[in-house]
Structure formats: structure tokens, C-alpha cells
Amino acid sequence: ELSDDGSVYVEPVAPVQPEPTEEELAEMAKQEQIRQVTAQINDLKVQIAASDYKVIKTYEYSLLGEQAEYDMETVHAERQNLRDQINALETQLTELTAE
Fold first, then answer.
1. Which of 20, 34, 67, 93 is the most exposed place for a label (fewest CB within 10 A)?
2. What pairs with residue 2 in β-bridges?
3. Where do the structural domains in the chain lie, given as residue ranges?
């Protein structure tokens, strides 16, 4: 279409984004893996924190000489399993960020 001054309107063209290089793709994949491992670590830490009350309550009961309602061997085993998973993921994270 012509404007009042006789010039022709040209629709602006969006700049074309270059395809990422193999190195850029590898770095993006690495960063995504780091995000996933970090999220897993945070989730496991939340699970441990959610069971803190059992440890505190059992300790309180033991100070009073009363029997606690939780089997501390089971609670400890569950919490240690979570800690072991966190340690393995933190090692993996260290390796990912060192590269």
C-alpha cells in the first residue's frame, strides 16, 4: 500500500536466530542437568526436614523417661537413606560443575 508521500510500506522482518552450535547445545543440556540435580537435592532435604519433628519428639520423650511412638531405628534408616541420596547427588553436582 502506498502512503501519503508515495512510499511503499514494507512489513518488518523479524531477525533470524542462528541455530545453536553443538557446544551451546551441550552447555544447555549440562545446565538443565545441573538444575535437575539441584532440584532433587532440595526435594530430599525437604523430606528430611519433614521428619525432624519425629526425632525431636522422641528425644523429648526419652528425657522424660517415656516410650516414644516412633520406631527410631526405622526413622533413622529412612533419614540415612535420604542423606545417602543427597551425598550421591552432591558428588554428581560437583562433577558437573567442575567440568
1. 67
2. 8
3. 22-98
